[in-house]
Amino acid sequence: MRVKKQKRHRKAVRFYTACFGFREPFKVLCDGTFVHHLLLNKITPADIALANALGGPVKIFTTRCVLGELRSLGDSYAESLNAARNLLTARCDHEKRKSAVSCITDVIGENNSEHFFVATQDAELRKKFQKVPGVPLIYGLRNALFLEQPSAFQHQFVRSAEEDRSHMTDLEYKLLNVKKKNVAFEEAKDSSDANEDKNDGTLTVQAIQTNFRKKRDLKDTVQFKRKRAKGPNPLSCKKKKPCDNTNNAASVKGRKLFNNPPSISFPFPVVITYASLAWYA
Ligand SMILES: [Zn+2]
């Protein structure tokens, strides 16, 4: 059962790393209810428990507003407040303290650009974040931690984002139309040989096209580069005559050779037989 749970958690973490760019160390944003639950159920040390649940190292965050809310709850939450003070603080820019729910909602924003895992015991808040793309949710149940599976909304969001990427954007469509018009115009211009009178409209179209080409580094036509041998065919050329310097060097070398003739040695003993002398005679 435990292995099954771990597999489900790994799969969910893979979904968020692959589709939303989550990276280790994973950042976990806790509210007061979650910190209180950790202490109540002795899920400590919290970073190791969370790292085991997510399958990677973690950094645990809270916000100043969450600390303020815990402080306002009095002595019964004093221990949780002390524990939460040891956590890292995520920036929330709230000068006047907000409720933990609205503070965390603000920090997550529209698309959780900071890549936080949100850890809370507040079921309502978790439900709310299921409607925000790229917000993984953690909660505790007695002494175990659970990572919620990606919601149907989040799966749908990823699918439609993929579809959008595979289609042309409005800007790309407009630029393509401009390009088509421009090509048609150039063809017409070539046939009527009207090079001199360019009107303003064409110039704008051309300017847009050049800008577009500069930005995207596109070329109008496919350019083939033919491989050609450089220089004349070496098989049909005479050999280069050696220059004077080399001549001199060769003659000096020859002279040297002549002055000191090399001794000829045979690899085998030469036996001059009587019969061979007779043959020469
Ligand atoms: Zn805040």
TrEMBL record:
<dbReference type="InterPro" id="IPR029060">
    <property type="entry name" value="PIN-like_dom_sf"/>
</dbReference>
<feature type="region of interest" description="Disordered">
    <location>
        <begin position="224"/>
        <end position="248"/>
    </location>
</feature>
<keyword id="KW-0698">rRNA processing</keyword>
<dbReference type="Pfam" id="PF04900">
    <property type="entry name" value="Fcf1"/>
</dbReference>
<protein>
    <submittedName>
        <fullName>rRNA-processing protein utp23-like isoform X2</fullName>
    </submittedName>
</protein>
<dbReference type="GO" id="GO:0006364">
    <property type="term" value="P:rRNA processing"/>
</dbReference>
<keyword id="KW-0690">Ribosome biogenesis</keyword>
<comment type="similarity">
    <text>Belongs to the UTP23/FCF1 family. UTP23 subfamily.</text>
</comment>
<dbReference type="InterPro" id="IPR057776">
    <property type="entry name" value="UTP23_sensor"/>
</dbReference>
<dbReference type="InterPro" id="IPR006984">
    <property type="entry name" value="Fcf1/UTP23"/>
</dbReference>
<dbReference type="Pfam" id="PF24779">
    <property type="entry name" value="UTP23_sensor"/>
</dbReference>
<keyword id="KW-0539">Nucleus</keyword>
<feature type="domain" description="UTP23 sensor motif region">
    <location>
        <begin position="224"/>
        <end position="241"/>
    </location>
</feature>
<comment type="function">
    <text>Involved in rRNA-processing and ribosome biogenesis.</text>
</comment>
<dbReference type="GO" id="GO:0032040">
    <property type="term" value="C:small-subunit processome"/>
</dbReference>
